[in-house]
Amino acid sequence: MSEVSVTKDTAGAAEPLVVLDNVNKHFGALHVLQDIDLTIAKGEVVVVIGPSGSGKSTLCRTINRLETIDSGTITVDGKPLPAEGRQLAKLRADVGMVFQSFNLFAHKTVLENVTLGQIKVRRTPKAEAEKRARELLDRVGVGNQADKYPAQLSGGQQQRVAIARALAMGPKVMLFDEPTSALDPEMINEVLEVMQQLASEGMTMVVVTHEMGFARSAANRVVFMADGRIVEEATPDQFFSNPRSDRAKDFLSKILQH
Amino acid sequence: MNVLLDNFALFREGFLGTISLTATSAVLALVLGVVIAGFRVSPVPPLRAFGAAWVTLLRNTPLVLLFLIAFFIVPMVLFPGMSTYLLGVLALGFYTSAFVCEAVRSGINTVAVGQAEAARSLGMTFGQTLSLIVLPQATRTVVAPMSSIMIALTKNSAIAGAFSVTELFGVQKDLSDMGYNIMVVFMWVALAYLVITFTISGLFRLLERRLEVAR
User: Fold this and answer.
1) Where in the numbering of this chain does the ABC transporter domain appear (chain A) (predicted)?
2) Which of A72, A131, B18, B208 could bond to A22 as cystine, CB 3.0-4.6 Å?
3) What's the domain count of chain B?
């Protein structure tokens, strides 16, 4: 396998928001993240793709410290990730996260899911939090489901609520950990459309996905990972039309076959 | 034959004594049990160790031994002159808290990890995550074992009678001293316990049904 030297052509002069420097992580004997260097600029949409087991989900989860790292540093908006505790909780409030399995609070209504963080973490007054929640729910197209419980919604609706829940905190950056992988095919687009809109509004996003269409149309940069390493970084056009590494060529040939 | 009617005041006193003893110890056990369960799943190692030690110590000690400690050592070292009622509550409450803790912990483990991860990623602290997200969802699983624990507590409270706390089982001794037929007395005492335990299991069944609807 050849590895191509990584060029950071799109990061440019923009202000860096999330910086991973020489990050390493092991799961037992498995070296799941190997010397990861990645800088995400403010307003940038970075799509992380790669075969399963390549460490891309783990990478995404280290950014808000749902996974700890063994060595290296991660800084968000200039501040290194603190250890578990109040400081970390404060930082996490600024980093929105959307999970593969939605993880909506099952015992709370849709509206409560979106207001809870605002009220308990941001200390926003209830009325204001509800107003903002309803606006966000309307924006992601589930405003009429506000009083239902998550289990009464379709997967696509649940994931859009989860996006609204994260946005309600006013995050600086949004992390998407395979947001469409647990969805029925006909529901994938409704979620991608919301994400696309978010990207066009200038939200800083890190998106782990298998949706190549989304990567092509919304990403500023594609990061290709394999076996715990970043193998290639490029603009979507460059990456999809002319991948430089053999590993990426191999990956693309497999997924574009059908 | 009229043991019950002739000594109704005595029975009533014992009956109310058992209810009060059980209820107070139950509150103590629930509060302690939930807090210790929180310790056991907390990210702070010393708290986890304390929780584990608490459960191991109290769950594996015979209750009678705890009563002996509560009645003979605690007043000597800590609180001289504490009422026998309170000492009984302490022994029963501490003992039962270990079982409550384990029931709550098993409930916590049934809540999907993603729920806590979502809460943490919103910026909630450990305490908020536990009290707002995890424990409310654990409740439904915990109700059934909790019912058994509370029934066991009711019956365990009989031991307090031997330590001169006024309660139902102690009535039996007073009456047999007075020369009544012990078999008949036992029957009435057993019936009185059944009234309490059936009420408890009924209440918990109701609670279980309520929580089911809430989904």
Assistant:
1) 18-252
2) A72
3) 1
